[in-house]
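BUG-309 | component: ligand-complex export | severity: low

The export step for phosphoric acid mono(formamide)ester jobs runs without errors, but we want the raw record kept on the ticket for reference. Input record follows.
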Amino acid sequence: MNEFFQKDIISVRDLDKQKLETIFDATEKIIQMDPNQRREIARGKTLGYLFFEPSTRTRLSFQAAIASLGGTSLGIADIASSSAQKGESLADTVKIMSIYSDVLVLRHNLDGSSRFAAEVSTKPVINGGSGTEEHPTQAIQDLFTIRKEKKKIDGLKIGIIGDLKYGRTVYSLLYALGHYDVEVHLISPETLKVRPDSVYEIKKRLSFTESTNIDEYIDDLDVLYVTRIQKERFPDEEEYLKVKGSYVIGLDMLQKMKDNAIILHPLPRLEEISTDVDNTKQAKYFEQAEYGKYTRAALLGLILNRDGF
Ligand code: CP
């Protein structure tokens, strides 16, 4: 039996290096597979999605992924149109969705929401983003992108810039990078540094520097991972306005980077990467979004098939 069969994906911390590499290898297989063969992987299976927060990429890539495997999807993209609006609990909503689906993906504004959903669901639950806590499938896609574009992960110098306090993709990425031999530089405004409780855990496996100044590292990086300042998570808009626009990656910044460096972003992007950068060879964030469809298809294929595919 494959180790992902009928398993929840709640935190990257549940995935060791071998499990990550299994997903990456399965993703390569998905990419290379004949489409007709791929459509047999989840034939007759249903993905249920429950999105209590907005999403473009995560929800649509999961839907595209299950469709590419021959399955279907149903769910709630706008919670205001569901009975949660009448006061139905998350537990009951998840239980109902697990009756109609073979695997669920949940996005929710509360930390711990996916783990709670997994406890009440009769079907495997995938965390599609929980509060400021984690976004594990994003980290899988991020690492796959690095591996694909740089042909390796070990040995790279990786800068992560922007909102490191509220950006859940950052936490999942840092936990996952802890399995690799990488040099990490965290760059953020002073008020948006990685949260101290997580620093303690991340430091156990990963050495990193913290700075407010991108110029200290920009010319030495192999990967620059840019994140959006998460306006919606600030308790006080005044605080957001103080840090809004702190870093903007434009063509001027590209001039300082190594010629073969790559720029990633989980997206959505606001002003933190100038659109001028989009057509440069360093910009890989749209490829990154595309890889998300394949990594999620691989994960679904492994979760839904006892012996893998
Ligand atoms: N990267 C990401 O999670 O994008 P969405 O919010 O659009 O799903």
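Assignee comment: Attached the raw record above. The first strand starts at residue 46 and ends at 51.
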